[in-house]
Amino acid sequence: MPVAQPGSVSDVTGETLPDTFEIGPIRPPSEAGSYLLRLTRGCPWNRCRFCRSYKRHRFSLRSVDEIRGDIDAMARARDRLRGLHPGGPRGAVRAGLVGTSEEWQVANALAAGGRTAFLQDADSLVMRPPQVREVLAHFRLRFPEVDRITTYARSHTLARLSADDLSSYRELGLTRIHVGLESGCDALLRLIQKGASAEIHVRAGRAVVEAGLELSEYVMPGLGGRELSEAHARETATVLGAIDPHFIRLRTLCLGPKLALWEEFQTGRLTRQTDVEILGEVRAFVEALEGIRSRLTSDHVLNLLGDLEGTFPADKPRLLAQCDAFLSLPAREQRLFQVGRRAGLLEGLRDLQDPGRRASCETLLGELTEVCGPDGIEEGVRSMLQRFV
Ligand code: SF4
């Protein structure tokens, strides 16, 4: 069988077609092994004060023709990569047969099973519904093996879609929508310029769930500082109680001087919480969550407890116990865990029982204390997190 050169392939007509297609910069952690299909570029809102994801990008819609071309190119890359190496897509990557970032992306999705796709960028469903349907139909035609298609969407956009539109997306293969809820507290939503109120969040979330789509809502602990912490925890739980989404995902605020929100903390309107205080807020949030069947996950490196995961209502007592186990530790043990977690050495508390990991955390804490002084460790840990801003 002739092997096509990386980045190009001959189709049945003999014409050489490029394997290039656009890839946006962001996807949720849970979509690390998905095909990435770009429907729009950037964020049509782009004003949230805690977000810099698309600050340097102007928003634009892509044409259906362009997107169809990308789907075809991805399908050609998939077909070529499937038979390229006896070790499968990973073997092809190791053997240096995968030359471009687009091919690498397809190889990565294939290596993860090739059954999931994510639509980019920040608010794909802002496209006109007939166009979204055309794209989904073409993707299904070229990738019939994919059984999970997910996307980001803003509550503001979802709340304006009809029930028929949402149902038609589900029928064409869209399975899950990821929404940046951040908070259910109106005062905080206004402060961060989210462009959605608690009422819009609930209306959008309910519409998604009622259309039979899975819903994943992202919550941002630490967003309101000490001043709004209690209202943030309580009112976010109330909004999620009204939605009952399939997933609630924690993504702790990572504050830095480049964020517009920084100003609120510099001027003293908001006071920054420590990692321990933010976990106290998470505990209050978990405690206030009632009447839901959602799965809570903590699948982001910015969260202090990486293994805080469970399904409501059955796992709620365990989730609270996990928070309490950390909150009741002596201050030095909390510090040891915090440093180890922020350095990427630990995920959950039980990892601290491992003698090797514990020793590495002790070494790191010692070094950090030497550099920052005992009172500067919280700040030292914060600077370790700046790489994620
Ligand atoms: S809607 Fe999402 S991507 Fe757009 S600015 Fe807000 S957080 Fe960022």
Give a description of the structure.
By secondary structure, the chain is of the alpha/beta class. The protein has a domain at 337-389. 44% of the residues lie in helices and 12% in strands. The chain contains 15 helices and twelve strands. It has helices spanning 64-82, 88-94, 101-111, 129-142, 155-158, 163-171, 186-191, 198-210, 225-243, 262-266, 275-288, 316-327, 331-342, 355-372, 377-385; strands at 8-10, 16-18, 35-38, 40-41, 60-61, 116-120, 148-152, 174-182, 214-219, 247-250, 295-297, 310-311. Strands 3-6-7-8-9-10-11-12 form an eight-stranded mixed sheet. A two-stranded antiparallel ribbon has the order 1-2. The longest helix is centred in the N-terminal third of the chain and has 19 residues, at 64-82. It is globular, with a radius of gyration of 23 Å. Bound molecules: iron/sulfur cluster. Residues 43, 45-48, 51, 53-54, 122, 154, 180 line the site of iron/sulfur cluster.
